[in-house]
């Protein structure tokens, strides 16, 4: 039996997400998403990664229109909102400040409570959004893979979860993006590498898989191995990347996905869970989605894969996490500052 309070179907939340390079606002009634607006910042493409100062400036430009459109699309007026949920961390501090300041101003102006959401909890809690898919049965094990994090999380209840494994250096999304950058792709390279890999042979090149102790991961060695391999090959033939890009992408993707799957398997066996889930931006990866589905069939566990719109950063997941906080009356404070390294 679950020991968490169930959320009210009537509670209307406005949610704001601004932890990295997406400005997003959503309106939820209970677990139903009435709107979920995301403004993605194209400005970073040319720099090969997110430039923090530019990200916060873009959030400043987008936050008001994004919130306005989210309310309009939901058909909800400001006076109907019961509380305002926002991402308190972790993330880029300058980006977090924009969403936090906006949420606090609304909270003060409307005299409605604030809900401080942990971004990584929210990625996982996106599974509780009412979108026609089954909700994972508790407890479940979630592989949370994003641009900043790679974690194996035991979810006991929506407000009680613990990290049982994590990356000691780069996150899986970071590995995708950095390797894509080495291959000459713009930021974020993860989705581009995924697309390319569909036409490539995953066995064409063999890259090393890290062997960390316990349930931890490491991806920085792979990035370095790919870098040195490509430097060597490009010295011999300057069109090596161009001639082999699909095979390179498929081989890199295979290495990252199989590394993720090995520890997931170890964690399933160690904990004895019967339900697993994927969360975070990298859960949009076609190879990882397929690997988790096949694994579940073979191991007789139930797998939950998020809808694509709830994989990468979005405010609907912040609203969903906010609903659980609201039901437990865990309200935030205007005096609390956002935190780049908010503890899990
Ligand atoms: O969760 P998210 O939107 O932001 C963070 O919280 O970091 O994740 C973004 C990450 C980026 O590294 C991006 O390249 C990766 O998710 N990503 C993908 C795919 N779609 C997004 N990586 C591999 N394959 C994809 N299809
Ligand atoms: Zn995220």
What does this structure look like?
By secondary structure, the protein is α/β, with parallel strands linked by helices. It folds into 2 domains: 147 residues, ATPase, nucleotide binding domain (Nucleotidyltransferase, domain 5, 2-Layer Sandwich); 167 residues, Nucleotidyltransferase, domain 5 (2-Layer Sandwich), CATH 3.30.420. Helices cover 42% and strands 19% of the residues. The chain has a 5-stranded mixed β-sheet, sandwiched between helices. The protein has a 5-stranded mixed β-sheet with strand order 8-7-6-9-10, sandwiched between helices. α1 runs parallel beside α2 and α7 packs parallel to α8. The longest helix has 32 residues. The two termini are 24 Å apart. The model has no long low-confidence stretch (mean pLDDT 96). The chain binds 5'-O-[(R)-(carboxyoxy)(hydroxy)phosphoryl]adenosine and zinc ion. The site of 5'-O-[(R)-(carboxyoxy)(hydroxy)phosphoryl]adenosine has 18 residues, from α4 and α5.
